[in-house]
Amino acid sequence: MATLQALGGDRLPNSARISASQTGNGASTHIVDRGASTERPALLTITTTVAATPTCTYAIEGSADGTNWFPAAYADPATPETPSVATFAITTAGTTHRLLRPGSPWRFLRLTYSANTAVTNTADVTIF
């Protein structure tokens, strides 16, 4: 697992791919480091391809130290002022976005996939 810098100095926004065509259960292939400032919002983009009877459950997890993980607050773009830390499922092919709110106490971010049946995930994090 690599830690990818998604903070490019003055060249914001900047993105990092944390999963590329990842299948199965477990943590994303990589984690992203947004830097020391917790005041930067981010956008998580999950693109899925599916086979028969697809489902995958997602946990967005943050960490202050890259070792100890906790649920990270996010919001659905349809309700951007309603934060959640709940897991969510995707059952179709397409692209899903989650807004990662500023002020959340994480420096590092990863996704954890569970109950994955026939879903291939590609995930990017863009820091603003």
Keywords:
ten-stranded mixed β-sheet, mainly beta, 128 residues
Topology:
Blueprint: E1 2-5, E2 14-22, E3 26-27, E4 30-33, E5 42-63, E6 70-71, E7 74-75, E8 88-90, E9 94-100, E10 108-127
Parallel strand pairs: 1-4
Antiparallel strand pairs: 2-10, 3-10, 4-10, 5-6, 5-8, 5-9, 5-10, 7-9
Describe this structure in words.
The chain has 128 residues and is mostly beta strands. Helix content is 0%, strand content 59%. The protein contains no helices and 10 strands. Strands 1, 2, 3, 4, 5, 6, 7, 8, 9 and 10 form a 10-stranded mixed beta sheet that branches.
- Tell me the structural class: mainly beta
Which shape, going by the Cα principal axes? globular
**H/E order of the elements?**
EEEEEEEEEE
Number of helices: 0
Largest sheet: 10 strands, mixed
Radius of gyration equals: 14 Å
Q: Strand share of the residues?
A: over 45%
Number of strands: 10
Average per-residue pLDDT, rounded, comes to: 90
